[in-house]
Design brief:
6 helices
């Protein structure tokens, strides 16, 4: 039996890619750049890639001892699965759908806000991802409560998804190169060692 610790690959790039791709496609619809008729594409991604892949990434972050990554990926994986179920069952809410989806999005905005504070101790790319994500959820919640256009929230979501994809790519490329090729920045606040 070896005393050598088991090393696992970083699950972060997987979780960020799953989040980023699903977010970009949904945000293209919300921003009005793609027709709502392609929502089926988002729903399939939400269930399998945005949902399941992030849940798996979150479980591996638990294994690595990364509380922030485990909480983020597991939660947003569950978000995408619940989003799939919500869209497929929204008709059951009838005239209350706007309020129901609005409170759903608002609470995800609250969650994203406190996760944003956790990014003060992470790299700057995560700081910006969670900043834009929090704004996205709040704007989408307001749009649902008021019955107005989700376009502005869609644009913020598009930025969020692109930032997540960049950070995922940086994680993969930097790991393969064994050095920083694509920078993600350092933490705003240093953790105590």
């Amino acid at each position: 039996m070896s005393d050598k610790p088991v090393v696992i690959a970083d699950p972060g790039p997987l979780g960020l890619a799953a989040f980023g791709i699903t977010t970009v496609i949904l945000s293209l619809i919300n921003a009005g750049l793609m027709p709502g008729t392609i929502m089926t594409v988002v729903l399939q991604l939400a269930l399998v890639y945005g949902g399941a892949s992030q849940l798996f990434a979150g479980m591996w972050e638990f294994r690595k001892g990364n509380t922030f990554g485990a909480t983020a990926f597991t939660s947003y994986g569950a978000f995408w699965i619940s989003f799939y179920l919500l869209v497929n069952n929204a008709a059951a809410m009838g005239k209350d759908a706007g309020a129901g989806i609005g409170i759903y999005l608002l609470m995800w905005g609250v969650f994203s806000l406190y996760m944003f504070f956790g990014t003060f101790y992470a790299n700057k790319m995560l700081f910006f991802i969670f900043l834009f994500l929090t704004i996205t959820f709040i704007l989408l919640a307001i749009a649902n409560f008021s019955g107005s256009s989700a376009a502005i929230g869609g644009w913020f979501g598009l930025i969020t998804g692109i930032l997540a994809l960049y950070t995922s790519a940086a994680g993969v490329i930097n790991a393969q190169a064994g050095k920083v090729v694509w920078p993600v920045g350092t933490a705003f606040l240093k953790q105590n060692s």
